[in-house]
Write a structure and sequence with these properties.
alpha/beta; Ppx_GppA_N; 13 helices; Phosphatase; six-stranded mixed sheet; ATPase_NBD; 308 residues; GppA/Ppx_hydrolase; Nucleotidyltransferase, domain 5; single chain
Length: 308
């Protein structure tokens, strides 16, 4: 039996994530390991300063090093998103990652990010349904609309939870101004979806908080219907608490407590602007999309699959 094994690392603005996929043969579906997540806040300061800071790069390199031994014999593709693609020193940072670990690295465009997130989230949905995916990241927000195998429209916005937090602290300084800023950003869509799916840390965390999960459980996140009214209710509840007090909120990871409100404001704005009262939550996202669309093919070509 020819078993193929690959690893994908998603290098985001707030966290890096690792997922390994195993495929017994071309006729069998991918089997994935649980996603390993380390918060490094790589995108901190990129919106204002235009470059990755020395501190955030070192935090990220140290975190990547913890996976080195685990990935010794597995072809690895590092997929870098908003923070790295927008930073003036993003390519230099990826060159350092290649030099230290020998991994293949690529920066994906906002359009690619939207498409990969869409294909990851919709793989098991009705192939005839017209689906919209909303991916609120830390550095950017991606929207895609289409059927399971064909995206008809997509857009990437330079607006994410970390970016909005930094703008809020310097210029927006109120919920009303932050939401107004978001409302001015959305562009018209020329297609009407029948299903709305939300992916990314802000939305999965919101679903976990509404359900008051003590431990994050993908089975309870996937297909959860998150109501706009619950999103709106979370914002004043969280804003009334200090950072320390938010540690007691079930479903809220400690490393996300300072960016959850900006992320929820983006979600509130989007759902209100397009008049969506509910959004279906998915734990599947860009990482699964990389496997389903074989977006690591260049790394596989270089290294070849790990066969057992």
């Amino acid at each position: 039996m020819n078993v193929q094994e690959y690893a994908v690392i998603d290098m985001g603005s707030n966290s890096i994530r690792l997922m390994i996929g195993v495929k017994a043969d071309d006729a069998k579906p991918w089997r994935f390991t649980p996603k390993d997540v380390i918060m490094t806040r790589l995108g901190e300061g990129v919106d204002k300063g235009g470059a990755l800071s020395a501190e955030s790069m070192e935090r990220t390199l140290e975190a990547l090093a913890t996976w080195r031994s685990r990935l010794l014999y597995v072809p690895v593709c590092v997929v870098a998103t908003s923070a790295v693609r927008d930073a003036s020193n993003g390519n230099a940072f990826l060159a350092e990652v290649r030099a230290r670990f020998g991994w293949h690295c690529r920066i994906i465009t906002g359009s690619e990010e939207a498409l990969l997130g869409f294909y990851g989230a919709t793989a098991n949905m009705d192939p005839k349904a017209c689906i919209l995916t909303l991916d609120i990241g830390s550095g950017s927000t991606e929207v895609a609309v289409g059927t399971r195998n064909n995206v008809h429209w997509s857009h990437s916005y330079d607006m994410g939870a970390v970016r909005l937090k930094e703008r809020w602290e310097t210029e927006l300084q109120s919920f009303e101004k932050a939401v107004a800023h978001c409302n001015e950003t959305w562009v018209p869509m020329d297609v009407k979806p029948t299903h709305i799916v939300g992916i990314g840390g802000t939305i999965t965390t919101a679903a976990a908080m509404v359900q008051k999960l003590n431990v994050y459980d993908p089975q309870k996140i996937n297909n959860y219907s998150l109501a706009l009214k619950d999103v709106i209710e979370l914002i004043p509840r969280l804003s009334a608490l200090s950072q320390e007090e938010r540690l007691a909120i079930r479903g809220l990871p400690p490393q996300r407590r300072d960016i959850i409100i900006p992320g929820l404001l983006i979600l509130w704005s989007f759902m209100s602007h397009y008049k969506y009262m509910n959004i279906i939550v998915s734990d599947c996202d860009l990482m699964e999309g990389v496997f389903y669309r074989h977006a690591f093919h260049d790394a596989a070509w270089r290294n070849g699959p790990n066969t057992k």
